[in-house]
């Protein structure tokens, strides 16, 4: 093997090899897991101001073993680096649209929206609009119930390409939500430029709303901005009654968080809210 790279450092550092092996093994395990149906959709409910169920966010989990459940923060990054995010993302979209189609005709579920997280790598794929279109056709899901959640990082890419893709999907009826709003670097002008339907206030702002005197006016300003631009607003990470109270009085149209409902397997979500309808 080649030894002694620049600075006299060993090029094939054995610990680096270990790390590379571990990464390769993790990726192979993810690939197998995807083939074996180990990735499962969880849903976290979203409610309006009076507690009516208006939607849910789809959150992926990897059921690696009977007891071992891996959260997305541990594998989405690897999936993006390895390209696995494309088949994984397609799987999430397809399962989400299947659920939307299944819920048609169910009084408590047929009007709700599903928020699906979409990686910048998926938006970069020129075939993405056709993929979504095909999934909508195949499943029979109502497109206007599908809300794709993007983070501000997508706007750092070629904005013309991204808007073109978004407009194609908007024409089909699909909605777009800007996730984690306020944490990225995007200019406010982007809010006008991109065809968005909804803003999600990041939970870092929601967290401090009752305690930090600076967060409250920021959240109020975001809500006012969204209203001016005709965007719906969802506050995420609502954990305390005081936060909910503040958001309702601030004019926030919907919210999600541990106070209102945890992410739960999609089957449990269906069974629970098909019976309840309201939270
Ligand atoms: P996100 O899109 O910001 O999702 C919200 C995260 O906040 C979820 O974490 C959710 O469980 C958590 N959460 C919800 N309510 C509360 C609360 O009241 N308090 C606190 N502390 N946390 C709350 P999760 O499920 O671990 O997902 C983490 C991230 O992984 C997501 O952040 C999203 O960026 C990504 N992700 C999840 N599913 C997918 C997917 O299917 N595709 C892609 N590309 N990314 C996904
Ligand atoms: Ca999200
Ligand atoms: Ca978020
Ligand atoms: Ca986040």
TrEMBL record:
Coiled coil: none annotated. Residues 23-277 form the EAL domain. This is EAL domain-containing protein.
């Amino acid at each position: 093997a080649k030894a002694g790279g620049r600075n006299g450092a060993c090029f094939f550092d054995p610990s680096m090899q270990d790390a590379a092996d571990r990464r390769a093994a993790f990726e192979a395990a993810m690939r197998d897991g995807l083939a074996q149906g180990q990735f499962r959709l969880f849903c976290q409910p979203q409610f309006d101001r009076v507690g009516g169920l208006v939607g849910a966010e789809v959150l992926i989990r990897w059921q690696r073993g009977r007891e071992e459940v891996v959260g997305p923060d541990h594998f989405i990054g690897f999936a993006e680096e390895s390209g696995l995010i494309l088949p994984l993302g397609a799987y999430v979209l397809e399962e989400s649209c299947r659920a939307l189609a299944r819920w048609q005709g169910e009084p408590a579920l047929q009007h709700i929206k599903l928020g699906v997280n979409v990686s910048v790598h998926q938006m970069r794929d020129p075939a993405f609009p056709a993929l979504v279109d095909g999934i909508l056709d195949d499943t029979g899901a109502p497109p206007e119930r599908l809300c794709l959640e993007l983070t501000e990082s997508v706007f750092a890419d070629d904005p013309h390409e991204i808007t073109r893709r978004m407009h194609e999907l908007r024409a089909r009826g699909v909605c777009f939500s800007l996730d984690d709003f306020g944490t990225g670097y995007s200019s406010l002008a982007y809010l006008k430029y991109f065809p968005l339907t909804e803003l999600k206030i990041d939970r870092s702002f929601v967290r401090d709303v009752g305690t930090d005197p600076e967060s409250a006016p920021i959240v109020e300003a975001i809500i006012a901005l969204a209203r001016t631009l005709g965007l719906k607003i969802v506050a995420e990470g609502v954990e305390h009654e005081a936060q909910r109270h503040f958001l309702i009085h601030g004019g926030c149209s919907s919210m999600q968080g541990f106070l209102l409902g945890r992410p739960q397997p999609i089957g449990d979500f269906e069974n629970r809210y098909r019976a309840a309808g309201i939270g």
